[in-house]
Amino acid sequence: MSLDWSEEYPFPVTVCNRNGTILYMNQASTRQFADEGGAHLVGTNLLDCHPEPARSKLAGLLQTGASNLYTIDKNGQRKVIVQAPWQQDGQYAGLVEISIPLPADLAHFNRDQPA
């Protein structure tokens, strides 16, 4: 069994190093960014793909290794964006960005309330 789950993961996964250089894009990520170059974006800088103020926010995340989670509306689709650090040999190595489309009828459960 292969543990490389991310290649066929249904949501875009993009991985960059501490400097922002894109190291990996799964199939969904290359499809999502096909108009911008798709797989040819590997080796370019993730900062160049983000306008201000997102670019400055991302630069700060790259420096600190902090996480960022937010939602966006783009092309009529609401998505949650997760930007989180990854480690190699116990050392901060860069960021992983995952983009997950949210359905309009997304269920929400309050686990603090009795059923």
Structure, described:
This protein is globular. It has helices at residues 27-32, 54-64, and strands spanning 13-17, 22-25, 68-74, 77-88, 91-102. It has a five-stranded antiparallel sheet with strand order 2-1-5-4-3. The chain has one domain: Beta-Lactamase (2-Layer Sandwich). The longest helix has 11 residues, at 54-64. A hairpin with a 4-residue loop joins strand 1 and strand 2. The protein contains two helices and five strands; from the N terminus they run ββααβββ. The protein has 115 residues and is an alpha+beta fold.
Which properties best describe this structure?
5-stranded antiparallel β-sheet, 2 helices, 115 residues, alpha+beta, Beta-Lactamase, 35% strand, 15% helix
Q: What is the compact description of this entry?
A:
This protein is an alpha+beta fold and 115 residues long. It is built from 2 helices and 5 strands, in the order ββααβββ. It is 15% helix and 35% strand.
Global outline: globular
Q: For this structure, what is the CATH homologous superfamily?
A: PAS domain
Low-confidence stretches: none
CATH fold field value: Beta-Lactamase
Pattern of helices and strands: EEHHEEE
Largest sheet: 5 strands, antiparallel
Number of domains: 1
**What is the averaged pLDDT score?**
93
How far apart the termini lie comes to 39 Å
* Structural class by helix and strand composition: alpha+beta
What is the CATH C-level name?
Alpha Beta
Question: Could you give the count of β-strands?
Answer: 5
| Alpha plus pi helix count | 2
Helix amount, in percent? 10-25%
What is the subunit arrangement here?
A: single chain
The main sheet orders its strands as 2-1-5-4-3
- Name the beta content range: 25-35%
| Overall radius of gyration | 15 Å
Give me the CATH architecture, please: 2-Layer Sandwich
